Amino acid sequence: MSVNPDRPAEITPEELAAQTALYAPFTQAVRELVDATIRTTVDPATIRTAQAEVEAITARLREEQLEGSLGAHFGHGRARQPWGNTVVGLRNPVAPPLRPVPAGDREGEVHAEVVLGAAYEGPPGLVHGGVSSLLLDQILGTAAAAAGKPGMTAYLNLTYRRPTPLGPLRVEGWVDRSEGHKTWARGHVVGPDGPTVEAEGLFVLPRWARELLARRGDAEAPPAFE
Ligand SMILES: CCCCCCCCCCCCCC(=O)SCCNC(=O)CCNC(=O)[C@H](O)C(C)(C)COP(=O)(O)OP(=O)(O)OC[C@H]1O[C@@H](n2cnc3c(N)ncnc32)[C@H](O)[C@@H]1OP(=O)(O)O
């Protein structure tokens, strides 16, 4: 986790809400810019003008910025905000974003509705296989964390049953079983015609985290990432 000494790790729910209201629409606007960049058919002069405008905005934003990545150092209580995360990050325009919510009745089960547009294309008109893997890694990890057994991905096995079309999709994850610090999770991407990609993965609470918890006498669980 990266730490920015200028920003407090503990912020109030009100400050969290204010930052969410500020950054969520800004990030969405940049996401729209990416989609428009891919799909625009305007004339060459307009492209050059737009490029200069985008470069000017980038320069303005770089006048003040963090060193390194955003990390997940701030939040309220035990909840940390992974706002730079490439799948769920509220401040990351690369994130589709995925918004997993508790669902179903399997252990740790979480679902996320998502619309993947032109930015996530692999084969023409279809979702890139690596993007499906990205979403499944996150949702399986979230399921493990939701079950109170957070961990890092040790392995992730994927079976691509059929092509995944761009457009509206659902991503589901749940815990299959666990033994101590090891949790096996399963999940799939569901398209208009049913599951397209299936995943099975192992999530391990790393040795350093286990040792940290042992030093604290197991009094405190690992941080929860919202
Ligand atoms: C701090 C937690 C973070 C929580 C984040 C929640 C956010 C949710 C969303 C995030 C979603 C996004 C998620 C991401 O993107 S996570 C980013 C992608 N993943 C990584 O970068 C992980 C890199 N690898 C490691 O850090 C360590 O190797 C891990 C953590 C995996 C093991 O750790 P560590 O080296 O310290 O522990 P250990 O050596 O004592 O091994 C422990 C046990 O595990 C067994 N084993 C290990 N590897 C394998 C394997 N490949 N197959 C089968 N078994 C395996 C091993 O045999 C042993 O078993 P046992 O002898 O005890 O029975």
Automatic annotation (TrEMBL):
GO MF annotation list: hydrolase activity
Q: Which reaction does it catalyse?
A: (9Z)-octadecenoyl-CoA + H2O = (9Z)-octadecenoate + CoA + H(+); dodecanoyl-CoA + H2O = dodecanoate + CoA + H(+); hexadecanoyl-CoA + H2O = hexadecanoate + CoA + H(+); tetradecanoyl-CoA + H2O = tetradecanoate + CoA + H(+)
**Keyword Lipoprotein set for record:** no
Protein name, entry field: Acyl-coenzyme A thioesterase THEM4
> Where, subcellularly, is it found?
Cell projection, Ruffle membrane; Cytoplasm; Membrane
Question: In this protein, which residues make up the domain named Thioesterase?
Answer: 125-183
Q: Where are the transmembrane segments?
A: none
Can you tell me which family this protein belongs to?
Answer: Belongs to the THEM4/THEM5 thioesterase family.
Q: Which Pfam families match?
A: 4HBT
- What EC number(s) does this enzyme carry? 3.1.2.2
Q: Per the UniProt entry, what species is this protein from, by scientific name? A: Nocardioides oceani
